[in-house]
Task: structure prediction
Amino acid sequence: MGLHDTFHFDKDEYREKICGLEDANLVSAYRRKAMRHGQFLASSGVSAALAVVTHGVTLLSSVYSSRQAVVAVRKLEIIEVELSKRGIEIPEGEGEHNFKKGLKIGAGAAVIGAAVPVGIHDLAGSAIAGVTTLHAVNLASHGTIHSASLAAQPL
Result:
């Protein structure tokens, strides 16, 4: 789902698109939307929970995923109405199965996405500590820092 669909969803336009689908493609769209709904909800929840670890960076992802989940539900409702009009029944539990599959995908993606900024933060912290230590060693070699004070600092 692109940015335009996420923030400027047009029910009537989508309804027209869905009405033009063949039955097999409509059922496939139902399965995809059920899975995407779970994916966006999980991503939203995990991203919000990880906000403490990522210093709030993942809150942006949480808000965006929440909006995508709302649009996915609206699309799912339109598809269900069209399926009902055509007399097509989805096997019981299939929507729930696809939803749960989406939850797993969304949660995994959110955790991986949150690990990137945390990893960058840790990497930057290690680099800064390394540069600071090298600078101290350099100063010590020129006699600016006494060797006793350098020995007290962990390398």
About this structure: Helices lie at 3-7, 11-19, 23-49, 58-86, 94-141, 147-151. The radius of gyration is 26 Å. Confidence is low (pLDDT under 50) at residues 134-140. Residues 3-110 form one domain.
